[in-house]
Amino acid sequence: RATDVVVLGAGPAGLVLGNLLQNRGVDCVVLERAERAHIQTRARAGFLAANTVRILERHGLAEGLRRHGQAHSTCEFRSADGRFRLDYGGLGRGERHTVYPQQLLVTDLLTRFLAVGGRVEFGTEAVAVLDADTDRPSVTVREADGRPGRWGARYVAGCDGRHGAARRSLPTGTVRRHHCDHGVTWLGLLAEAPPSMDAVGYAVHERGFAGHMARTSEITRYYVQCARGTAADSWSEQRIWDELDLRMRGAEYGPLHRGRVVQRAVVDLESDVLEPLRHGSLFLAGDAAGLVSPSAAKGANLAVLEAEILADALADDLVHRDSKGLDAYSARCLPYIWRAQEFSHWMIRLLHGGPGGHGGHGSSEGWSDGSAGGASPFHDSLRRSRIDSLRTSRS
Ligand code: APR
């Protein structure tokens, strides 16, 4: 089978790309390994930046988030020095986030794509991208019934995430992977509990970081820093809530609203960037192009931004025979990617102190006794100074 653009993956990157290509009259197909119900219920990120909302609005994809998203513009920081609120919506460019669970955005994007005639092959796993160095690449697949298949195309867009076929198919020797393991591990939780405050909550504590992020009126995401190698199911619900309450200083600022923990996953904070984002006829976008650690909620936003740039470039080439956008794709995206990396890296150091969250480069001097978040006195002071400047500096 053949089309102009084969899009691998029906996450935010692949579905925004599919919609925008369809809007421009470019023939495409989205191949998705999972079933439809799975992608529509998979809870992941939830914070959309103002620019992301503008992109989605520009292409008629923002109706659901306009109707059901919640405006958000305040973070609360808690530490041994007290607590304060950073109303970032009243600073800088005055931009706010929209809280809209990613599975709802994915559902909106998918519904719209199918409604305008878009094709998605669910249960179809891309195995490899072949002949990306020619202008007739193809994608080998395992179909829903288990049989092998193949899609031919003019271009392939790899939007299939960090473990996808696009990354696996990159030619050796031409791609550079810049990788950083931040040495910090979080236990990420979804709780069937209403939010405990009307802000994103960041708690810096000698026992380690804890975070609170609203999702809906009934569901809240929490993060609690844990030791590297912790198994996701090794903490009891009681221990999770006690630890969250302690680190978020519930005794001083009010206890958290507890509820059933309905999903948990251990995340080692890692980042990478693959350079360049183009390999002949194969283009990377979203997590396939680079991973941003979840500390700053940039991943889904970058995915949408890259998808828009790629859609324009592909349509210019396929509709108007103008290949300048494709040639410039990688160079246009990389500054945004590195900017997001820089912010998320700064955020990690703000919340965890020194490298590894322990403050030392392999030296045990000054560590606190085995807790996940102990920082050396030096790095702890840096962290306090960073938080203090957030409290006092308008810029
Ligand atoms: N073949 C087909 N589909 C695949 C394959 C494959 N070999 N491998 C993965 N997929 C699918 C996954 O099932 C998933 O639906 O590709 C999709 C990739 O989607 P995401 O992982 O959501 O990646 P992306 O669209 O790049 O989204 C980026 O969303 O949640 C945020 O922070 C997260 O940074 C991430 C962002």
Automatic annotation (TrEMBL):
Coiled coil: none annotated. Keywords: FAD, Flavoprotein, Monooxygenase, Oxidoreductase. It is an enzyme of class 1 (oxidoreductase). PANTHER family: P-HYDROXYBENZOATE HYDROXYLASE, TRK SYSTEM POTASSIUM UPTAKE PROTEIN. The keyword Zinc-finger does not apply. Its EC number is 1.14.13.2. Pfam families: FAD_binding_3. The keyword Membrane does not apply. It comes from Streptomyces phaeolivaceus. GO terms for molecular function: 4-hydroxybenzoate 3-monooxygenase activity; FAD binding. Residues 3-343 form the FAD-binding domain. InterPro entries: FAD-bd (IPR002938), FAD/NAD-bd_sf (IPR036188), RIFMO-like (IPR050641). SUPFAM superfamilies: FAD-linked reductases, C-terminal domain (SSF54373), FAD/NAD(P)-binding domain (SSF51905). This is 4-hydroxybenzoate 3-monooxygenase. Residues 357-378 are annotated as: Disordered.
